[in-house]
Amino acid sequence: SLVVLFGATAGAYGAKLGSDERELILLVWQVVDLHSKKVGTLHKSLVKADNLDLSDQCREVSGLTPEGLGKAEPLDRVLQQFSQLVSSDLKVLGRSSYTLCSDGQLLIRQVLHPETSKKNFLLSDCFYSFYDLRKEFHTCYPSSAAVKDQTIKTMAEYLGLGTDEAEEDFGVWQVKTMVAIIFSMLSEGCNHAFTEPETVKYKYETGPCLLCLLFFFLCSSKSETVDSETVIRARGLPWQSSDQDIARFFKGLNIAKGGVALCLNSQGRRNGEALVRFVNSEQRDLALERHKHHMGSRYIEVYKATGEEFLKIAGGTSNEVAQFLSKENQVIIRMRGLPFTATQEDVLGFLGPECPVTGGKEGLLFVKYPDGRPTGDAFVLFSCEEYAQNALKKHKEILGKRYIELFRSTAAEVQQVVLNRYMSTPLIPTLPTPIIPVIPPAYTIATGSIRDCVRLRGLPYTAGIDDILEFMGDATGDIKPHGVHMVLNQQGRPSGDAFIQMKSADKAFMVAQKCHKKMMKDRYVEVFQCSGEEMNFVLMGGTLNRSGLSPPPCKLPCLSPPAYAAFQTAAVIPAEAAALYQPQALLPTTRTPQASAAAPPTVTYYPAQAAQLYMNYTAYYPSPPVSPTTVGYLAAPPGAVAAAATATHTPILPQPGALVRMQGLPYNTGMKEILSFFQGYQYAPDDYNGLIQLSDQARSVLQAPKEWVCL
User: Which 3 state secondary structure label does DSSP give 447?
Assistant: First the structure.
């Protein structure tokens, strides 16, 4: 038997049903016995929604009013009545089992499942299997319109069924017409059989993605891919959301096993994004209709993504990880902040007998750097939700002398974290070695009130220089050399803002007019004309808004803020900074006390393109916002510039053991605190500023670094 089901919400109707997150307000159904071709009683039930504000389309199409809906029963009561009435009708027809049949998939997948999930009550088993009448009709009549273009009316017209929609109540006509269509499909000329129902997964299956495991072992062939038509990117997720929370957001849609990959930032923390892979493109297209639906109080943005992006996030694994994740249906908890000396016994003792780990020591996975050093992270397997909840209660309890953070995790996060640590680059990266010292052409940072700059606001966080140049189009030729400046937030990540120096105020005005609210990667970007002074305030830490300009903060009272307009000398990086990033061939010579008094300050020059493309500015520059294309160039004293033009460089490493590196310093640490820390040890007292004496300006730019290198 089939139960023909039709429904409507308080919002959109037809192809957009469920896309606006509005509640169900109407259910109409009728039982059909496929063998005897008899039908049961037709039932129509109004549903009382929490929000009775009906859209104009709903009022016009359905004829329903808030007053009438206010007297109806809530959804949970209506579904109980549905089960009782269907059972009663089946008994009259002498049948015991049934399958739902609906007009398309939207009512089941996009309305009933999401709404009941949000209201925290379970649907009966019958709602996890149903027939899509449109697909069955197209199978029976291949010459009919495509499935996506089918409606109840077009199917009836194809069969020549002459029912009048105006003669019946809304919902009643639809169900009666669907029953007539089914009987036509069962006629002797067609003899259609309903054999392959659509299914809705009861729960999301965790575990490693099999395609991702295959990709890891065969990655050298570059032949394994994930279908890009099945992947979406969800943005704006609460940072504590797990893969199960994301699966619940997409309730009603079938996510592939291990198909939720939480994205992490460079510190291994969740960044509020996830990539989700569905079983087919049809499910992906339905997921895109949930753009800006809500998870709690937050709306979630849903965009298309590629299979390549998914593999980058979820495709990394190793034999150790594969073995760890081979146990099915386990709850994964991530521990962060473990002492570096912590052992498996320490972790098991910390968790205690109330939350036993699956497999004991085999249920623990410590994350390590490539050289084997522990990162302080670990993943733990639990066999059930109860044990995992007991473990989460130990959040921020003490192990040794450290408090431990515990979070829900996913198989994809395990793979991603371990892969990122395994493939992590050296802590202090190096730049390509130029053949000879190069002095790039000098360029200036715009100053003054001339409005020859433009500000781009609302850039995608993944946008780079190339994306901006493509966005500018023909106006790219009017940009000054080194004139694109990306603004970072206080975490060192793109803020969505950028400044561009144009060759004239007229060019800036034309760009602002032409490109304002133009699209870049599914986002519109605002473009405003501004002055060099306004740009400098933002690039150097200030703020620019409707209230005016707020100057950049000076974090160290003992140091004067730099004269921002003075960045007009040749593009030079002091050798103190160069020592952090240069390969051995470019490190300056070790100076003896006799030579240091007479030798001119040493400077090292980088080609402009190297500084722009490779400089890791977050290691020692001021807290963002700053500009990646400008912080790589620090003004040196005029004498140093002159000396560099004639000096002969003899690159030699400092004496072995003469260099130490300090990590984890407070951000407000100054030179005095560092000297005090090393009190009692022999250091070069007239050389503590580094390999050269710094000007006040350069010292200000280098204030409050995260790490220092000392002689």
Answer: coil
